[in-house]
Write a structure and sequence with these properties.
Structural class: mainly alpha
Radius of gyration: 18 Å
Number of strands: 0
Number of helices: 6
Strand content: under 5%
Largest sheet: none
Distance between the termini: 16 Å
Order of helices and strands: HHHHHH
Helix content: over 70%
């Protein structure tokens, strides 16, 4: 079995920590829904979307740390969906969209490197095999 690359450890923990912080801070939004009896359906849909997005980040981070190959694809699909919705909603390319896209591309690079592929496949990477000789 291959050892987990440090990049995957960092990505997994960042997803868990960021997802947890966002989940806790978004709990205040639930009180706004209860306070306003005439909450718009768009606000409620955005709230549901945010909780689903954060839940997927938490699940993806835990899955990456536990060597679940589907977790990196979950991350990939969710972020592509997030970026598409973000771009459609805002239309112009803002610094937020550019920054999120760059962060996404860097993370995908590390999630699909040969060492990461070996880790998720459960085999030793070439570098680890050479070191054991």
């Amino acid at each position: 079995m291959s050892k987990r690359p440090i990049s995957l450890t960092i990505i997994g923990w960042l997803l868990i920590i960021a997802g947890g912080i966002i989940l806790i801070t978004n709990l205040g939004s639930l009180s706004k829904v209860k306070e306003t009896t005439s909450s718009s359906s768009i606000y409620i849909l955005q709230l549901i979307y945010n909780y689903v997005k954060v839940s997927f980040a938490l699940i993806s981070g835990i899955g990456i740390l536990n060597r679940r190959n589907w977790a990196r694809f979950l991350y990939l699909i969710c972020w592509i969906g997030y970026l598409v919705i973000y771009i459609v909603r805002l239309k112009p390319m803002t610094t937020g969209v550019i920054g999120a896209t760059i962060l996404f591309l860097i993370t995908v690079f590390y999630l699909f490197r040969p060492k990461a592929n070996d880790y998720f496949a459960g085999r030793k990477s070439i570098n680890n095999a050479e070191m054991e000789r």
